[in-house]
């Protein structure tokens, strides 16, 4: 199989675990010392690679981890994660048994789901669940206004097989907005009112509500645990919030350099025509690796500390840059498509903006073809 150098022979993602950890520490520094971290590592840790992300996060002593799907939870168990793993989307009944077998904690949005969990919990099994309360996100959760009604049934079904109702949470819809504080506080109020209606006998119930943006914008809603995602991975949490340290750089090695005459065309549709003789470099990375097609003729790469423009349409596997301004570029040089090179930087936000999307989407679309290379030569 691949030799040790092969991971950086074509295109790859370089990851800085120490930066990820520092971002986590900035989250915990913003909240009460007793508040626990529940990092969201869904979608392969936002595309960066869950194994490396968990390795980087484990010194921060997280209470547990958040995933979206049962297979993601199973993968974490396979990596040796022993903490609680919460599955944050409603799941199909056919997945309950495997979730239980791997001690995954389901987030419950309906009595039907809870009944399914109860039916499939083998006697003596100690399954826990968390209840999602919908305060306006509208995609999952019990209705916050109706809490007194469903709480009775939740308690009854849980008691029937000894399920442990371990936590309650909600999710904010506009914490990333510049004026998000108002909506955070109004959802928080609706959530608190609902929790009040549950008439919980003990205070052992874990309460968690805050994503990255909510932690940074309203640290007072940190409750028992916080659920940061994007900020950990170097993506912007929202308008007007402090930027995290970048974690991921996208790199590709120049594999071809050519001098082309005036009139030469490049890419599907021949959307770029050389108006003078030019020097072009081919980068072995394309939309098949998650590079947005929208960067064609608009995006840049960094080579030898300089910015060079992408020319023509992005192909599935290749992208061409005009290196006429940096003629010393040779095959084997490393181009940076996200990240810094000398004085120049292409930040994640720049790429997201050009592609008319959000940092989250750029990261999670980074392809499985790209090796994730966790740097160990950076300060811890
Ligand atoms: C993804 C997710 C988060 C993390 O959100 P970020 O904006 O990435 O910090 C938190 N809670 C839930 C329920 C999520 O689905």
Q: What integer is the average pLDDT?
A: 95
Helix content: 25-40%
Seen as an oligomer or otherwise, the chain set is: single chain
* Poorly predicted segments: none
| Distinct small-molecule ligands in the complex | pyridoxal-5'-phosphate
Approximate strand percentage? 15-25%
Rg over CA atoms, rounded to whole Å, is: 24 Å
Overall number of strands: 21
> How far is the first residue's CA from the last residue's CA?
30 Å
By DSSP (H or I, 4+ residues per run), the number of helices equals 11
Apparent shape: elongated
Largest sheet: 9 strands, parallel
Structural class by SSE content:
alpha/beta
Description:
The protein has 380 residues and is α/β, with parallel strands linked by helices. Helices cover 27% and strands 24% of the residues. The protein has helices at 17-29, 42-46, 50-57, 70-78, 96-101, 111-120, 147-161, 180-197, 212-217, 348-354, 359-364; strands spanning 11-16, 36-37, 65-67, 85-87, 104-108, 128-134, 142-143, 164-169, 206-210, 225-226, 248-253, 256-260, 265-266, 272-273, 278-283, 300-303, 306-311, 319-322, 334-341, 344-346, 372-375. Strands 2, 3, 4, 5, 6, 7, 8, 9 and 10 form a 9-stranded parallel beta sheet that branches. β8, α8 (180-197) and β9 form a beta-alpha-beta unit. The longest helix is centred in the middle third of the chain and has 18 residues, at 180-197. The protein is elongated.
């Amino acid at each position: 199989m691949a030799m040790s150098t092969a991971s950086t022979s074509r295109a790859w993602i370089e990851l800085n675990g120490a930066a990820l950890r520092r971002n986590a520490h900035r989250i915990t520094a913003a909240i009460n010392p007793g508040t626990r971290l529940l990092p969201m590592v869904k979608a392969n840790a936002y595309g960066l690679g869950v194994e490396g992300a968990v390795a980087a996060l484990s010194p921060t002593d997280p209470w547990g981890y958040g995933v979206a799907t049962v297979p993601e939870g199973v993968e974490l168990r396979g990596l040796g994660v022993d903490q609680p793993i919460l599955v944050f989307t409603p799941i199909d009944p056919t997945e309950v048994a495997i979730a239980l077998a791997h001690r995954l904690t389901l987030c419950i949005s309906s009595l039907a789901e809870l009944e399914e969990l109860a039916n499939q919990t083998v006697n003596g099994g100690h399954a826990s669940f968390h209840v999602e309360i919908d305060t306006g996100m509208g995609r999952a959760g019990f209705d916050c206004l109706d809490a007194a009604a469903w709480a009775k049934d939740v308690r009854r079904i849980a008691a029937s097989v000894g399920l442990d109702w371990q936590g309650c949470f909600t999710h904010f819809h506009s914490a990333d907005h510049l004026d998000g504080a108002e909506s955070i506080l109004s959802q928080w109020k609706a959530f608190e009112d609902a929790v009040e209606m549950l008439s919980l006998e003990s205070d052992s119930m874990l309460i968690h509500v805050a994503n990255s943006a909510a932690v940074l914008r309203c640290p007072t809603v940190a409750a028992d645990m916080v659920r940061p995602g994007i900020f950990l991975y170097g993506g912007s949490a929202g308008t007007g919030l402090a930027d995290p340290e970048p974690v991921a750089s996208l790199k590709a090695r120049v594999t071809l350099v050519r001098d082309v005459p005036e009139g030469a065309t490049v890419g599907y549709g021949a959307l770029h025509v050389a108006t003078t003789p030019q020097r072009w470099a081919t980068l072995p990375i394309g939309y098949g690796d998650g590079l947005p097609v929208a960067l064609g003729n608009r995006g840049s790469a960094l080579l030898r500390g300089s910015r060079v423009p992408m020319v023509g349409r992005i192909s599935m596997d290749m992208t061409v840059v005009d290196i006429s301004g940096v003629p010393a570029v040779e095959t084997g040089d490393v181009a940076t498509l996200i990240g810094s090179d000398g004085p120049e930087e292409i930040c994640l936000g720049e790429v997201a903006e050009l592609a008319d999307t959000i940092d989250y989407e750029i990261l999670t679309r980074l392809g499985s073809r790209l090796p994730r290379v966790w740097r160990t030569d950076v300060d811890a």
